Amino acid sequence: MARVPSDAEILEAVEAYAGRRGVSARLADPGAASVTWQVLLDFRIVRSVEERGERPMREPGTREEPAGRPTYTSIESYRVAPPDDPERHDAWRLVRRGSLGEERCEKCKGGTNSCGACGGRGVRDCPRFVDCPVCQGGPDACWECEGTGRRRVGRPAHPGAAAPSAHRVLCTRCRTSKVACPKCGGRRQVDCTDCKKTGSVQCGTCEGTKRVIHQECEGTGRFTVWTEGYINQSPRREKERRLGRLDLRRTTGNAGRWQETVLRGATDELPDDLDETDRALIDPLLALRKDEVARRATLRRLPLAHVRVHADPHRDYYAFPSHTGIEVTSRPTKERVRNVAAIAAASLVLVALFTALGMAVLR
């Protein structure tokens, strides 16, 4: 790691910072301040992991594209270069030598099959007559015979028969005037407009051709088949971080002069001055993984001094090397934060209590 500031340099920087906040003290004096150190750690490793395999391929029609791919004999021995950047995704699609060919579709005839919707007839049955859309094919078709052709004898008259309407017509069955539905003339049904009373309509699925395209082979009647070999190189990421208290991370991350070490090979060594505890934390992440073909490990470290100033017991001071010298910042101590939170909570309870008492008095 680059040179770490001495305790004396840290105390000098903190003394100047505290003085600007109105704290007057000579921190170099015995007992005026205490300094403890920790090293912030940010370790990340990205590996390029390779996956290889084979799979049978079967595509409809004549496919020219597979013929232009590289061929192989053994997918395991086919050589590809590891990526320059392990963050990159790379993929190869190959054809096993001698596997490319065509085969006839066994489930169709020339790419089509008999239409299942119409049974290969090209037409579908259709009722020649449908219920009248005006009288709905009910007894209101005729007020006299109710569409049966037999007049009312000994039966009460239809409620509408007492007031003949100009909109009613002669019933074609019982021959009574001004009693029948104007649409069907008392027949209850009208000619089907779809089939024009023929009893059949063109099949909408095959449009009368009696055959439909076989979807599996896309109407080609054949398939292109081959054995595909695939090689994928994709990144895998791991990390281990020790970044200290949350409210300092933005400051240390932006202003700190982090010492960075980059390892690109499985045999590259960690820095000699790395603490043994940190080394034990990182070493397991550096172990070679199955099918790993490239890596980049980045170790970043920043020494951070925690200074307690006895003349200002309610604040913690922090100092660390920056690109311009020594950066100093401060935060309330945890005890101070807890005390303020407790006072705030007690104040809220008192406010709620006085509010409740006031409401009780007003009632």
Which percent bin holds the helix content? Answer: 10-25%
Report the mean per-residue pLDDT as an integer.
91
Distance between the termini: 72 Å
What proportion strand? 25-35%
Gyration radius, rounded: 45 Å
Unreliable segments of 5+ consecutive residues: none
Computed structural class? alpha+beta
| Shape estimate | flat
Q: What is the oligomeric state here?
A: single chain
How would you sum up the major sheet? 9 strands, mixed
SSE pattern, N- to C-terminal: HEEEEEEEEEEEHEHEEEH
Number of helices: 4
Q: Tally of extended strands?
A: 15
Present the secondary structure layout:
Layout: H1 7-20, E1 33-60, E2 71-72, E3 90-96, E4 101-104, E5 112-114, E6 123-125, E7 129-131, E8 189-191, E9 200-202, E10 211-213, E11 222-242, H2 249-255, E12 259-263, H3 276-286, E13 292-309, E14 315-322, E15 325-332, H4 334-362
Parallel strand pairs: 2-3
Antiparallel strand pairs: 1-11, 1-13, 3-11, 4-11, 5-10, 6-9, 7-8, 12-13, 13-14, 14-15
